[in-house]
Amino acid sequence: MLSRSDLEQFAKVCTGIGNAAADGSGFVPIRNLLDRFQAKLVAHPMLVEGMLASVNPEHARRFGGDKWVVLLDSETYAFNEQDVQQESANDPLPSRLRNTVAHELVHSLAFRPSEFGMRLRGAAVGRKNGSDVVEAIEAETERFSPLLLCSAKSLKNYLSSFRRTLSVTDISKARRWFGVSREVMINRLRLLPPDDDSRNLPALRNFGIGIGTWKSQTEALLRSWPLFVNFDRNIVPRFLLELRNQDMLPASQIFSDPNFALSGGQRSTTTMEAESGTLRSGVIERIPISCSVEPTSRNSGSAFLIVVHKA
Fold first, then answer.
1. Which of 51, 127, 183, 293 could serve as 71's disulfide partner, Cβ 3.0–4.6 Å?
2. What pairs with residue 221 in β-bridges?
3. How far is CA 162 from the centre of its chain?
4. Coil, helix or strand for 264?
5. φ, ψ dihedrals at 287, nearest 5°
6. Is the pTM of this model over 0.90?
7. DSSP code at position 143
8. How deeply is 25 buried, as exposed, middle or buried, from its count of CB atoms within 10 A (0-12, 13-18, 19+)?
9. Cα–Cα distance between 203 and 159 in angstroms, integer?
10. Domain ranges in the chain?
11. Which residues contact 121 (CB under 8 A, 6 or more apart)?
């Protein structure tokens, strides 16, 4: 098991790489990440979406001197070298591909922490088998890929540009610009340290965001993961607290406005007074909130973002 200081080292390294790999606009092209990790991207028929492989020194010349190869299943991902070299914020590679590459690159840190200036302590304690150490590191660092794809500098610049709480449209635009999925965008916000001053910016004050899934044209379910909440005094609308322990929560149990999309209507936004409290105290007050849902297809299984903020 990695210690807290070990995890902080991994987070710091990934944050630094993300910042260094961002281009002039703040977007992080996959080619820049590959360069930093000395890795090459190769498409090949496989039974899994992605895989990391080290390059035998005898064959290094074939891979341009790179030490690692990120293999992507050629049936899942269609791309060529030109797509990778010309990637930009205006024409990003598919978000699923970008996340798979970042995921594998973060895993490579398990095999070479010293190359990035890390000295791990907790991982080696009580372990005799080197593969056990690598497995423990991979399990703990899997969640850090958003730090590579959404650079800290770019994210803070984006959040600082608002003098109001982010809307669902703002988040939708941001995740497309960063070239990431809804899940990765929310997880990037979750990776903001508790003492990060970005949490106190107007964009994220008294704010929560999660993901829902359409069950039918008029029925929606809210997911327990991923979920980012950032409310003053940690007083959070109760239904957001309930989501921590109940996946697929029917939206009809929360919203009563018949005109709101999640109640079967057509309006993307509704306001209400919500019972609110903390994890320990339970309900202690009612606060006015506004809820907005991302306009997407209502076909069964379609995902959408939902944003909640204090009105």
1. 51
2. 213, 250
3. 21
4. coil
5. -125, 145
6. yes
7. G
8. exposed
9. 6
10. 4-149, 156-310
11. 3, 5, 6
